[in-house]
Amino acid sequence: MEKVAIFVDVQNIYYTTKQAFGLHFDYNAFWAEATANREVVKAIAYAIDRGDEKQRQFQNILRAIGFDVKLKPFIQRSDGSAKGDWDVGITLDVMEYARDADVIVLVSGDGDFDLLVQRARQAFDVSVDVYGVAKLTADALVKSASRFVPVDDKLLLPAKRR
Questions:
Q1: According to a count of CB atoms within 10 Å of the terminal CB, is the N or C end of the chain lower?
Q2: Strand bridging mode 75-76 / 38-49
Q3: Could you give the angle at the alpha carbon of 154 between the alpha carbons of 71 and 23, nearest 5°?
Q4: pTM above 0.70?
């Protein structure tokens, strides 16, 4: 059985699915697809903690699915901009867990990860599946992946009826 390590850039997938589709990512459907006939060696969701109750509920849902949830505080700068970036943390964890996996699954469209994907593939002889919103995923990341899986209807929660 293939061993898989999963890394989800929660902020990236939240904003890209919202921008492209006006919908939310379906973590349960994703988990079922990404882990089918695979042994999970690690699964981490990286999020920003704003300290509100709705976010805590969402984080508990992720934990119930099977993710470890890593949180960073939301930082509001004095100039009005915000900081909340997990790129270095994701990179370190991918490099740590790649040696234990046959497949790395990265959920992000962030082009900064193209070098990480290339290095992980070369150094650990793993395949890397990248899940992202097609029109909002960096071409360099798509090209560096072993397989690109576009987020589409099957990985989106249906719109809420009013």
A1: C
A2: unpaired
A3: 55
A4: yes
